[in-house]
Amino acid sequence: MPLYRGSVVRGQAKVIIQMQSTAIPLGIAAETNPLTQLAGLQLLGLLHSYKDCSMTTTTKRLLAASALIALATQLHAEPEFLNSGSVLPTNLPFSEAVVVGETVYLSGQIGNMPGTLTLAEGGIAGETKQVMENIKTSLNAHDLGLENLVKCTVMLADIGEWGAFNDVYKTYFAEGRFPARAAFGANGLAVGARVEVDCVGAK
Q1: Predicted confidence (pLDDT) per residue in 70-114, tens digit
Q2: What gap in Å lies between CA 78 and CA 101, rounded to an integer?
Q3: Is it the case that residue 8 has pLDDT exceeding 50?
Q4: Sheet hosting strand 80-82, strand order edge to edge
Q5: 153 and 123 in contact (C-beta within 8 Å)?
Q6: pTM exceeds cut of 0.70
Q7: CA distances from 149 to 42, 80, 199, 202 (A)
Q8: Residue 59 CB contacts under 8 Å (≥ 6 apart), including other chains
Q9: Number of Cα atoms under 13 Å in the Cβ half of residue 36
Q10: For the chain, percent helix, then strand, then coil, each to nearest 5?
Q11: Phi, psi (degrees; rounded to nearest 5) at 170
Q12: Please, what is the Cα angle at 61 between 6 and 2, to 5 degrees?
């Protein structure tokens, strides 16, 4: 009996887990959402990889079912739009953070003093410190911490200050526990900031 069968039909990722003699369809509604379609295809690839693993058939089926349930929960979760007002005014046209399932998307933070759009003094070092403090404050406001971050994107007005940025940035994480990251030079950050960092976290 095959472990699974899968297909993508009219934008809907469908996977059927074969549990003993009963086929249990667990559909992931995608409609026209390309992200959901991609997630469904990724799941099918994951299930396919189980075929060659040295696990019992029962274990493979349980893992496949668990993966489906986790993905379905994530895809059907309603987004939460969060604004604590602890760092930036709440009347700006973006949310401080958006939570979808177990994933937390943080808006980019610059080195502004909390409650204002005035940048911290001290050049790149001063602004980087304030950026990281602002990220930490935003996370703490929603019962999370820097340890929940899994990916950050760094935008620098002068890529030549990458090293000076790193000197401050790395002090906010335990050694060997740095989020995945990308960094690039940018022209014209908000309110003349030297650095902006946006992050993705996991609960």
Answers
A1: 655 555 678 999 888 888 777 888 989 999 988 999 999 999 999
A2: 7
A3: no
A4: 80-82, 97-100, 103-110, 195-202, 149-156, 180-185
A5: no
A6: no
A7: 23, 18, 7, 6
A8: none
A9: 20
A10: 35, 30, 35
A11: -65, -20
A12: 50
